[in-house]
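[agent] plan:
  1. take the single chain provided in the ticket
  2. run structure prediction with default settings
  3. attach structure tokens to the ticket
  4. add a short note for the reviewer (M.T.)
[agent] executing step 1
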Amino acid sequence: MNKQHLALSLSVGVLGGISVFLASSILSSIYLIWVGFIAWGLFFKNGGDNNALKMTITAGIYGAVLAGIFFVLSGSINIGGQLNTPIWIAITVFLLIFGTQLSIFSCAPTAVCGYAATAGYIIHAADGAMIPMITSVAIHNPVITISLSIIIGSIFGMLSGKLATAIGN
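[agent] step 2 finished; step 3 output follows
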């Protein structure tokens, strides 16, 4: 049995339970557990170190912001009639990938996950009732909620890696 793998399994299991508890209690208004777990996994996929923490947070939030921009623009500026939504998707996804040239946003898969999580949350939460919230600065703005969930999930990823190292030594 691989001791380090056992340590990581234990740390992710314990911290995963704590994360779910927080998401369903004191952080329930700002932390979506499913987004947190996505960010947690991306943290490890991005390298599992301090640079991965920064990359996961910045690229994930970048994607969330561009999804928010999509909803604002597509809802307020009709540039293509029946093709309005696909045109705005094409524009914002182009910008999403084009922006990954910047080192702060350079992890395209993480940026795409931030975009997809935000779009999915907005579309599927109460049949689009969150769309008007996009322009608010309130904590319930879906872009803010997804961004906070990415930050919290990434931090849990970092903590689980550090705890696994401590347990494994």
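[agent] step 4 note for reviewer: The radius of gyration is 17 Å.
[agent] ticket updated
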